[in-house]
Design goal:
Elements (H helix, E strand, L loop, with lengths): L1 H24 L5 H12 L4 E5 L2 H14 L5 E5 L16 E5 L6 H4 L2 H6 L3 E6 L5 H5 L2 E4 L15 H20 L4 H7 L4 H7 L2 H4 L8 E3 L4 H11 L3 E5 L5 E6 H10 L8 H4 L6 E2 L5 H11 L3 E6 L2 E7 H7 L2
Parallel strand pairs: 1-2, 1-3, 3-4, 4-5, 6-7, 9-10
Antiparallel strand pairs: 7-8, 10-11
Helix pairs in contact: 1-7, 2-7, 3-7, 8-9
């Protein structure tokens, strides 16, 4: 029991230590940070992060966050830079080199080569007198009192602080660039937000042979068969000239059966409703879903110049995660 209490105390102490490191991080968000933001905003190339070990992992995450929030970025392993990866760098790129000690040998020896390519260097370390700080064009100091590791060796609090600094960098750049939800969606087309802001009626509509259409003079039994085969609960009714003149839902069929003793003598035009809701092909799929929910209907026609292009099914949109 006492051992369990000790484990809980240790875990809580780790959290306290890392929170303390983050609070201390605010002291280093100053004019240097603002200068780094301005330099990155003016960059015509990419923001390339480099590091080794835990700093490399943190660099990858920061780079990924930046790429998805409007700042072109990728990660380059400092050691791999000597084996061909330097070929990825262009003169108008900016290199962000991360090393808490500021003395990581493999990272430092890449800097002179990168300089010859014409790139600016932003160094990130916990020592403003380190070699990295001295040879960088810009330096971000991220200093902590101690690591959460009881041996004060494993990068814990320092890694967390650097990671949060990266988030501060990304969000500040988003604000500076007036990055909007629509911009975020373009980087996340597979996510819920991307689908809501990018997918249109044209992208999600049912077309071709799957489109439920029947002639106005088709018998009621054929109407039932058509609705059943297409599987979305409706069919559209067309004239001899292939103009859409109405819609039949499975509800219309049930009502017709209830009202008439001669249902199987009826034709499509006897069962159909002339009025139906439609949307343009460029209407956002999310808006289409809202309209269906508001009107309590399961399908929407997609029309252009009075031509039926397709049908949107509510269940399809929900399945897509819109």
């Amino acid at each position: 029991m006492n051992k369990d209490k000790e484990i809980i105390d240790i875990a809580r102490q780790v959290i306290d230590d890392e929170v303390e490191a983050l609070i201390g991080l605010k002291n280093y968000i100053d004019e240097n940070f603002e200068e780094i933001i301005n330099v990155i905003c003016k960059c015509k190339g990419r923001l390339i992060f480099t590091g080794i070990g835990k700093s490399g992992h943190i660099s990858k995450k920061i780079s990924a966050t930046l790429s998805s929030t409007g700042t072109s970025s990728f990660f380059m392993h400092s050691t791999e830079a000597f084996h061909g990866d330097l070929g990825m760098i262009q003169s108008d790129d900016i290199i962000v080199a991360i090393s808490y000690s500021g003395e990581t040998e493999d990272l430092l020896k890449t800097i002179p080569i990168i300089r010859k390519l014409g790139c600016s260097i932003i160094g990130v370390s916990g020592n403003d007198k380190s070699t990295l700080a001295k040879i960088s064009d810009y330096h971000q100091l991220i200093k902590i009192k101690k690591e959460a590791c009881p041996l004060d060796l494993a990068p814990t609090s320092s890694a967390t602080a650097t990671l949060v600094w990266g988030d501060a960098l990304a969000i500040s750049l988003m604000n500076k660039k007036d990055f909007k939800p629509e911009d975020f969606a373009k980087s996340h087309p597979g996510g819920t937000l991307g689908k809501r802001l990018l997918l249109t009626a044209r992208d999600v509509m049912i077309t071709g042979d799957d489109l439920p259409i029947i002639k106005y003079n088709a018998l009621s039994k054929d109407v039932i068969k058509n609705i059943s085969e297409k599987g979305i609960g409706v069919t559209f009714v067309t004239s001899l000239e292939n103009e859409v003149i109405g819609i039949i839902t499975d509800g219309d069929v049930r009502r017709a059966i209830d009202k008439s003793n001669y249902f199987f003598d009826m034709s499509a035009q006897d069962i159909m409703s002339e009025g139906f809701l439609s949307v343009a092909p460029d209407e956002l799929a999310s808006e289409c879903l809202n309209k269906m929910a508001e009107k309590k209907i399961g399908c929407l026609a997609v029309m252009q110049d009075e031509e039926l292009l397709g049908v949107i099914n509510q269940k399809d949109l929900v399945r897509l995660g819109i």
